[in-house]
Structure formats: structure tokens, C-alpha cells
Amino acid sequence: MNLNPIFYPESIAVIGASPNPNRPGNIALKALVESNFNGRIYPVNPNYSEILGFKCYPDVLSIPESIDLAIITIPTYMILNSLKACVLKGVKGVVIVTAGFSEAGEKGAALEAELVKAINGSSTRIIGPNCMGIYCSYSGVSYAPDLPRIKGETSFISQSGGLGIAFASLLSSRGYGLSKIVSSGNECDLKFVDYLEYLEGDDTTCVIGGYIEQIRNPRKFINVARRVSPLKPLVLWKAGIHESGRKAVYSHTGALAGSDEIYNAVFKQVGAIRAYSLRNLVNYIIASLTIPDFRGINIAVVTGPGGVGVSIVDACEAVGFRIPELCMETRRRLREALPWFASVSNPIDMTLAVVEDIKLYSECVKIVMEDGGVDAVIIGAPGLFRVGEFTDLMIRLKNDVWKPFIIVWSFMRSDIEEAFKRLGEAKIPVYFMPEDAAKSLIAIKKYVEYRDRFKSIL
Amino acid sequence: MNLNPIFYPESIAVIGASPNPNRPGNIALKALVESNFNGRIYPVNPNYSEILGFKCYPDVLSIPESIDLAIITIPTYMILNSLKACVLKGVKGVVIVTAGFSEAGEKGAALEAELVKAINGSSTRIIGPNCMGIYCSYSGVSYAPDLPRIKGETSFISQSGGLGIAFASLLSSRGYGLSKIVSSGNECDLKFVDYLEYLEGDDTTCVIGGYIEQIRNPRKFINVARRVSPLKPLVLWKAGIHESGRKAVYSHTGALAGSDEIYNAVFKQVGAIRAYSLRNLVNYIIASLTIPDFRGINIAVVTGPGGVGVSIVDACEAVGFRIPELCMETRRRLREALPWFASVSNPIDMTLAVVEDIKLYSECVKIVMEDGGVDAVIIGAPGLFRVGEFTDLMIRLKNDVWKPFIIVWSFMRSDIEEAFKRLGEAKIPVYFMPEDAAKSLIAIKKYVEYRDRFKSIL
Questions:
Q1: pLDDT digit string, tens, across residues B423-437
Q2: Is A161:A96 a contact under the CB 8 Å cutoff?
Q3: A129 vs A65, A66, A247, A401, B418, CA distance in Å?
Q4: How many residue contacts between A and B have a Cβ separation below 8 Å?
Q5: 3-state secondary structure B181-219
Q6: DSSP class of residue B388?
Q7: Quick one: B279 exposed, middle or buried, by C-beta within 10 A (0-12, 13-18, 19+)?
Q8: Class of A1-130 per CATH?
Q9: In CATH, what number does B293-450 get?
């Protein structure tokens, strides 16, 4: 499905634009300005002649040029007329931000049916209603003034606009940018699967995340997702698992949450990576971006001072990884490199010796990687010591080795946040907690196994 | 057990002090200087006459004054003599940082036995060996230069020094200070339970966290923990759960990890809150500090824009909370306060209306709290919008209500980190993820139920 005019519009009308900084129509306009949208912007509001420095029009039909995307923020009962004007004008995509449709009961559902009728037979498509809309870092379309603006290769389809913002803020804090976000709302016209199909062909999207309350057309979803997932990892978080959660979904976007077991079966069948929380989602996306081909089972753990090694081992075994004994030659070489009281069994504890000689981290990781019985190494970062030097060392290490390594860094301080960003930019996976690392690794491993099977069938 | 001379020493000797910034003896000295220890500091090293501006002594016996605490960082084989000198000198506590004892095999275990023999019959106690030592925000004793230095009411006993630092950095990033940290190492003399007994009587400690690889004297531990836990919540993280994890524990601090089921039974019996990760540990400590009397089962969820409400409901139900329907009167009042398309069923979705009127957050929470069927409210924060105003509003709200409320704020940005700190300082629980909030609430609820039963027996 070609949604290019929606994601890369040349002109946008903001219907309901307002100079009041707390009105949705003002926020929508400001979002475009702040994300440097470089197409034409047309505020629409009969009460103003100019808003935020842009000439303002009384209605969309009075705009002298053609419009690709319209963003509607006016009250519910006024929307149908406004939408009809957009259809007349030949607008390609209409984002309806306003709520009060199928999620708000029967009256709203009837209104929503009217919207669908209004675009029938036209080339106008609806995003929403009850949504936030579209974000694209490459074109500068945006739905929130504060959305981080780093370009990247991840796109996110969300049946919640707020989560789109949360997702973007979490990824950017880890050094990763975004390509696109869609807040799809009630999906009266364009649905999750339509956006998925568009992203399938989008060159700047390599990994796709999704927040799902309901898949509205499962058959098409299965077909498209099965086609997409071997090429672009698909990390999906399904919410509304429990009884009240399902009710909450209904009042949120008018969706029927459906049985959790069915979703599990569908996700498995299409090779999607299933996330159970926003934290999972972000962690698995990061793994998809940094270690997309991870297949191993045998993990070596290399740490400096302090019990992190034990908890990394616990977390790895909890998800099914093995912590194998190292071979004699590896242990001999580690023994040479480390003080006599260090532990050269797996997990390797280099002890406080690394505080004196930070290079031991990369030396020992290299030795361990040459052990044929080791598929990947998890490194416990040295806490608050020598943060910048350790980060430099890891970035250099990445160029020297061919097996994957993952860093666990369970500390919070501003320089460590900076280190997380730098490691992310260098595509080195780093996680706060051992369980984050272990769960991400096993999720990717299972995905790669699916992909391998899928390819062997072709 | 009175360990006051160890936590509040008037004089400290750093044996093995060094001017080389990467040596443990330099780090130990710098830690004391940077944490403003205001007692007397005596570096000991025969090769220098002065280090970091302090007069340096060739050995501990040549120091002209009495010494409360000695920190030993010299090589393993030199330690026994140095310890004997400390005993002669009448030093009260000796922190042995150096590794290479029982965790490093038979030879090391024999050396460790010698240490214990050396203090036999004396008033000298050993902390460690193979540990980092003591931190006390009130006296300025510290074992790492970068440890945050906010005073607080939480103390932490850790069989890993590195985790002590991680714990401190995480708590301080959330606005909470610390009273004391002990890195207890191999525990050849003073053991986990001895520190616990000391903290029982420590006025500046209200909540106690622990990282446990092995309880070395379970009978005494059960007695002391049972006495402490009804008065000071005890949040314990036991590591070394799986097979390799247990081996890792042995090579880390020479401990035998023991069966996980036994620990589970013991923790239950003594009323400890069990954590399964560092994240759990920090989250449960924060709940202990902010909602120490939480007993409820019925949760109302109040959110602004976006699917967070659904995932909060999912997380609450997953741990056993109920999301009850609100009574007619509550719904009527919410309907009056909110736009017609908002959802006034639990979870309450105030929609984008809160962007226009941020005060709706506190108004709706107050209305919901007056519903007799609601025990607590979880609030989904408004993402990146109006961060400071929302924080102010919540701090004011705390003074106006008597039921607990918890905030979920799944966003990362520097101003939100600042908000987390401010909310922490105001003792308002705020969590990144719905699952963090739900797990913390249920952990506290179970603890309070234990405490209630315990008190009813007395």
C-alpha cells in the first residue's frame, strides 16, 4: 500500500489550529514547526487570519494549493463536514485526532460509520479517529512537539499515540533514532496491517515495532506479517491480556481484545517477537538492531568487581542459556592475563584488577571468544569506574571481534547515560539489568531460528 | 551488636595507600576525602612520607594515635602480618579489601582461617576479606569515590561491593539517599546477620536491603530477621538460583548458595520481601519508603492520553489486584469533570483533555479516592507534556488525600529524570513501567499482611 503522500506530504492543513498553547490544534501545528517539516503548512480556523506566523484559512477548500495531509483537531460533531471538504479538496490522508467515536459507545460508533461512508469511492484515507497521527523523521511530519528527532531505522505502529511518544523517548535515550511512528487510533479506515504493508516497502525501515490492542483483520495480518518478518524483525506487544484489560481496550480504542492464546498462536505462526511490556519492546528492538543474527546457546560471562556476574548467570539460565565450562587452553590464557586470585572459570571474575588495568576487559573477552565452546559474551560493566575509557574500549573491541558481546550496566548516572547513548550509536547492545539482556538474547535467538527455518523452506 | 566504631570511626588507617590513581589503596583514600570523612585519616605505606596531602606512616603501629577502622588493600600474602599489627594496635574494625582467600580455593581458605585465628580473643573484628567495605553517609566513611552522598533512611548489606554502588546510584537517581552500605565479602568474621543486628538498633536506618549469596548461619539469621522485619522492612535479593549461578557464587565469595526453595521458605517465615533482581530490590525499597502501610486490593487507574491505562490494568491483574467498577456517584462526578467522550469506567481515560487542563489529574484522582470501593490509585503520567506542572500538582495532591497513589511514567528525558527525583524527595512512589508499580504494590501488601498477623500474635 502506497502511503507516501501521508508520510512524505508536500503540504499539510491543520484543521482547528489555535494560538492557545494548550489546545490540540496548537500542539499539532507546533509539532510540525519544531520537527522542521519543510513542506507547506496551512492552519485552518475561521476565527484567525494568522497563527504562529502562518497565514490561516477559514476552511480547507479556500487553501489555494493542493493538500496531501490534513490533521483535524476540531470537536467531534464538526468533523464529518470537515472530512467531506477534505474529500472534495482531494486530500490524500486525513488524521482525525479528536475522540468520541466507536470507543465512546453507540452514538460514537454511528458517527464513525458516517466518516467511513464519506470517503467511500474517494482517494482520501483516514488515520484514526481518536489517534495522534503520523511521525516521520525523514519528512518532518510529527504529532508531538517534543518527539525526539533522531533519524533511524526503526518504525513503530501503535494503537496508542502516547506509547509512541514513550517508545521514541526511550529509544532516543539509548542512542537510537526512528524512521516512522503511526498512532492508528480506532482504525476506521487504515488499519494496523495497512501501515505494516507500507513499512514492508519502506527503505528507511529495517525493524518494526507494534503496540496492539486488537488486530481487526487477522487473515490479512497473518499474510502480510508472515511476508515481512523474515526480512524485517517484527516486535509486537499485545495489551489487554486480562479481563479488565480487555474492557479497558474497548473504552480506549473501541477494540475487542480477543483471547490471548489466539494472539500467541498468531504471533508464533508469523515469526513475530512477542513483547509483554514496553520495556520488553524497547529491549528487543535494540537486540534486533545490534545482534540481528544471534543463534548461540553457550554464554560466557566476563565481569569486574562485584556480584553482577552471579546475577547474569542466574538470568541466562532462567531463559535457557548454558554457561559452559571453558576449555583448558582458554583458562590457561586467562590465568596468564589475570591475577592469581581471579576466577578463570565461567563466569570469569577479573576482580578489582580491572580498576588498575581497564584493558583487561577487552583482552579477556578476546581470549574467551576464541574458545570454540562460547557463542557470545556478556560483559558486566565496571560500575562507576572509568566510564568513558570503558566505553571507548568497547567501541574499539567491536571492530576486533566477530562473535557478539552484550554489556550489562546496572548503574545510573549522567555519564553512564551518555555511555549508553554512545554504545547505542556504535550498535553495541547494552542493558540495565541482567534479565533485560538474557530475555533479549533469547528472543532474538528464537526469531533467528524461525527465520532460518523459513529460508530453508524457500 | 555494637559496630559503632566501624560505622562511625574517629580515625581510619588506609594500609596500602598509594599515590597511583588506579590502585585500590588510592581509591580507598580518595573515597574518604571525597565523602568528607571528618575524622583523622592515616595512610600507611613504607615507601611514601605523604599521600594526597596526608602524612604517611610505615606501619599501623607507628601511628601516634588510636585507630578505630583500618582498610587493608595490600597483596594477599602480606595481610596476615598487617592484621596482627592491627590487633596489637587495638584497631576495632579491619576491612580487608584484597581477594585471594576462600573464594580462590584451598590455599586461600587456609590463609583465611589464619586471619580468623589472628583476631581470636581480641576486640578486633574483620569486614571481608574480598570486599569493598563500609559506607555511612552520616559519618563520611566510604569505599568508592563516586558513591552518591545523599543522607537517607535505607541501609544495604551486600555480599557484593559492586552491587552496593549500583544500588546507591539507582536510589539516588530516584531522589533517595542512604544511611549505610556494607560490602561483606567472604564474611570470615562479621557476617550478614551481624550487620543486620547492628542495623536493627541503628536510628538512621528504617528500611534494610540485602544482596545474599549465602546465609552462613541460618539459625541466627532467622531469629534476628524475624525480630527486625516487622519494624524495618527487609527486602532481600538472593542470587545464585540456578546451577551455574551457584558455582559462580562459590568463586565469587566462597559461599555455598544452597537450595532456592529453602531460601524461599526462610524469607517467608521471617517476613522478608523477596526480590529477584536489582530492579525488584530498588522498586520494593522505594515502595517500603513511600507506601509502608499499603493493604488494599482494589485499584483505580487514572490516565491521560494513550494506552498506558491498558497496560497498567494488565500488570495489576497479573499480580492479583482487582480493577473494580466505580460506583454510580463516582462516575457521575467524573462525567461532570471530564469531556463527554472520556471514559469514566475504571480505567479512567481522561483523554487529551488533560493537555488543555492538567488539573484534571488531581481533580479526578480526588473524586475516585472518595469511592469506597477504591483502595489506591495508579496514575499514568502525561508523557512529555507539562512535566514540571504535573510534578507540582502531584506533590500538592499528596497533602490533600489520605489514600495512596502511585505514578507510572514510562518516558525518558532529562526533565522527567528530574521529576522522578522531586517525586522521590516528596515520598511519592513513581515507577517507569506498569509492571514495576504492580509488583511493588503487591510486595508491600503481602509484607503489611505479614506484619499485621505478627502484631496480632503479640
A1: 999 999 999 999 999
A2: no
A3: 25, 23, 19, 49, 34
A4: 262
A5: EEECCCCCCCCHHHHHHHHHCCCCCCEEEEEECCCCCHH
A6: H
A7: buried
A8: alpha beta
A9: 3.40.50.261
Does residue B360 have a pLDDT over 60? yes
For chain A, give every domain's residue range.
Answer: 1-130, 148-290, 291-450
| One-character DSSP codes across B68-115 | SEEEE-S-GGGHHHHHHHHHHHT-SEEEE----SGGG-HHHHHHHHHH
Residue B52 near chain A (CB below 8 Å): no
| Angle between helix A328-337 and A360-369 (nearest 10) | 170
| C-alpha–C-alpha distance, residues A189 and A432, integer Å | 40
Query: Which is nearest to B428 in space by CA: B374, B361, B373, B372?
Result: B361
- Per residue in B148-160, pLDDT (tens digit) is 889 999 999 999 8
3-state secondary structure of B125: strand
Mean pLDDT of A316-336: 96
| Complete DSSP assignment for A239-295 | ---SHHHHHHHHHHHS-----HHHHHHHHHHHTPEEESSHHHHHHHHHHHHH-TT--
Which residue type sits at B200?
A: E
Domain A148-290, CATH: 3.40.50.261
CA distance B264 to B259: 9
Fold of A291-450: Rossmann fold (3.40.50)
Check if B222 contacts A (Cβ < 8 Å).
no
* pLDDT tens-digit map of A109-161: 999 999 999 999 999 999 999 999 999 999 999 998 888 889 999 999 999 88
Q: What is the pLDDT of residues B153-204, one digit of tens each?
A: 999 999 988 899 999 999 999 999 999 999 999 999 999 999 999 999 999 9
Residue A176 to residue A283: CA distance in whole angstroms? 12
Residues in chain A with CB shorter than 8 Å from the CB of B347 are: 244, 248, 251
Three cell numbers, residue B298: 482494589
Give chain B positions within 8 Å (CB) of A410: 163, 166, 170, 278
pLDDT at A255 exceeding the cut of 70: no
CA–CA gap between residue A363 and residue A319 (Å, rounded): 28
Report d(CA B389, CA B359) in Å as an integer.
9
B129 upstream amide cis, omega within 30 of 0: yes
**What residue type is B84 in one-letter code?**
K
| Burial class, B366, CB count within 10 angstroms (exposed 0-12 / middle 13-18 / buried 19+) | middle
Q: Which residue in A169, A263, A313 has the most chain B C-beta atoms within 10 A of its own C-beta, making it the best mutation to test that interface?
A: A313
pLDDT score for B233: 98
Give residue B305's pLDDT band: very low, low, confident or very high (50, 70, 90): confident
Same topology between domain B148-290 and domain B293-450: yes
Which of B72, B314, B357, B359 has the highest number of chain A CBs within 10 A, making it the mutation to test binding with A? Answer: B314
B178 membership: H or E segment, kind and range: strand B178-183
- Cis peptide preceding B292, ω within 30 of 0: no
Per-residue pLDDT for B212 more than 90? yes
ipTM over 0.85: yes
Beta bridge partners of A50: A55
Phi and psi torsions of A93, nearest 5°: -135, 135
CB B347 within 8 A of CB B313: yes
